[in-house]
Each structure stands twice: as C-alpha cells, then as structure tokens.
Amino acid sequence: MGNNHSSYEKLEIGSKCQSLKVINNEKVGNVYLVMYSEIKEGENYEIVKERPSSFLNDIHYTIVIDVAGESNDENGIMGLEVHIVLEKKSKKIQLCFERKFGENQIYQELSMCLGKIENIYHSGYPLEWSFGLTRVIQSQWFQEFIENEKRGDMWSIYSNCYTFSKFLIEKLKFQNIYPLNWPN
After folding, report:
1. This model's pTM is above 0.85
2. Is 114 exposed, middle or buried (0-12, 13-18, 19+ CB in 10 A)?
3. CA 71/CA 66 separation, integer angstroms
C-alpha cells in the first residue's frame, strides 16, 4: 500500500474533514475493523467487491471510530481512521490519522463492526472527541506499542498494521462499558 495517507493536521476545526455535530446517536462510538486490498489493474471494482476470496494478498488493517454517528448503508463507514504504515525508505512504522468518508474506490474494502466505545470527555462534540482520541493515541498508546519488548519502530511480524489494530482494540476496550472484541 502506498503511503499517501493524511496526518493529524487534516482534522482542523471547522474543516469539511470532520462533522461538527452528531448525525446518529445510535452509531456514535461504533468501532470498525477495515481491511483494504489493492484492486489489480484491469479488475472492475464492482466485481472485486463481490469476491472477498481475492482479498488474501496484501491486506492493510485499520481501525475506524465513528465519532459522529455518520456511518450508514448508503455511504459506508465514516469516522476517524487510525493505522500504521511502512515508511518505505527507513522501514520504520508511521502512525496515521485520517478522515474516512465511505468506501474507497482504489482499494477493495472489507469491514466489520467490532463493538462500541463511549465518548466520556467530549459527549456531543465529535470533532473534539476526534482530537482527544488522536492525542492519546499519538502521545501515549503509540509509544507503548513500539516500546513493547518484541516490537520496536521497525516494520516486522511484531510491528505492523495488523498487530497495531489489535493493540488499539485492547486499549480502547479498557474500562469501556460496551462490548468491544477482536474477531476470532
């Protein structure tokens, strides 16, 4: 997967990158595992979408938190997307925060809702919640992830998008009142 990912600065207050109001209270806090695989040249997006078995190679894992309850059947999953990517030159991992706006037309996408988290500190304020989540992930949890005895900051079997996504779910479910579980 190419490294054309956005950064924290994309989530500016008042920008179109994040909803300023809650859209659907029932969906606020839903946490999704999203898996991407590149659509190969010559493949039709609609056909690839119907063949999840072609998803076996080059999967990229991300976590999306619907901070405003925007996800729906028509537009797909929306919210704060958190993941790590491989910095090609240095082989180090890079933390990324993005605004997910629904289905991606470049990559085949599979997703599942893993559960829900509660907005304790910024209830009713999705943009502020997004900033708060970004701060704690960037300043505390990412550091904890790379300082693990087997991980480090180099891309490896211990430090990659899958292991980071799983780690992030473990951190999010700590002291959470809602069920939130990694798939078996």
Report:
1. no
2. buried
3. 7
Q: Is the dihedral of CA 152, 153, 155, 158 positive or negative?
A: positive
Cβ of 121: how many Cβ atoms within 10 Å? 11
Residue 165's SS3 state is helix
Kindly state the average pLDDT of the residues 31-37.
93
Q: CA-to-CA distance for 98 and 86, rounded, in angstroms? A: 16
Question: How much of the chain is helix, strand and coil, in % rounded to 5?
Answer: 25, 25, 45
DSSP state of 128: H
pLDDT at 102 over 70: no
The tokens for 79 are 């919210």
140: Cα within 13 Å, side-chain hemisphere: 8
**Average of per-residue pLDDT across 93-104:** 83
Please name the residue that has the structure tokens 């289905």: 103
Spatial distance between the Cα atoms of 91 and 171, rounded to a whole number of angstroms: 25
Contact 181, 115 (CB under 8 A): yes
